[in-house]
Amino acid sequence: MWLTGLTAVILGVKLSQTIYSDEPCHAIEVSETVTESQSTIGSVSTFCRYVQNDNNTWTIIHRRFDGTLNFTRTWEDYRDGFGDLQGEYWLGLEKIHQLTQTGPHKLMVVLKDYDDVRMWALYDKFRVLSEVDQYELEVGQFSAGDAEDSLKEHNAMKFSTPDRDNDMWSGNCAELYESGWWFKNCHAVNLNGIYQDETEYDKMMWGKKSLKEAQMMIRVDESSQ
């Protein structure tokens, strides 16, 4: 089954080799023995993952799997990025903006809940606008996957952090949920929420599911070029 192979590669496989490149992720040549690579284009360093069943290499912009990294952060932190490319991290809004302004991108989100059920969602035309636009999220149609189509609720939302409130609620969603995200009133998805095994909306969530692992990955949509 395609999903089984896909999520196993993304969330479950130990690396046999990592390569380093000055090419963007989608241009790196891979083989069966190389599942991850690190790409540096100008000032932007990213971690790439080859998805064997999809036969594409994706740029990982967000990764959580054990709760060791604190995601209750300031606007500056979320703008510049934090964490370790080899572990949990948030790539940074400015870097994501720089990557996605080069042309149409797809977004793949891969999730695992506390029952160890794996899910995924694929979205078209993912883009993050500039800091002048408060890093507004643009996300297109849900095109594949067995996770709920929950991210659509956050389309056209500006990014908020506890110290910068850009949501549509009269209060401060980011302060309430102790995280930065594209909050609305407040959220259907929050992949930066508190890491804890409870089905409450202040946790790392997708729809109504509390999550144990999450990754956000992007790649150039060559079909739109």
From TrEMBL:
GO-annotated biological processes: positive regulation of heterotypic cell-cell adhesion
Assigned GO CC terms: fibrinogen complex
Transmembrane segments: none
UniProt protein name: AAEL001713-PA
Molecular function terms, GO-annotated: extracellular matrix structural constituent; protein-macromolecule adaptor activity
Keyword Glycoprotein applies: yes
Compartment list: Secreted
Organism: Aedes aegypti
Domain Fibrinogen C-terminal: from-to ranges: 16-222
Keyword terms, alphabetized: Disulfide bond, Glycoprotein, Secreted, Signal
Superkingdom classification of source: Eukaryota
Region forming the signal peptide: 1-18
InterPro entries: FIB_ANG-like, Fibrinogen-like_C, Fibrinogen_a/b/g_C_1, Fibrinogen_a/b/g_C_dom
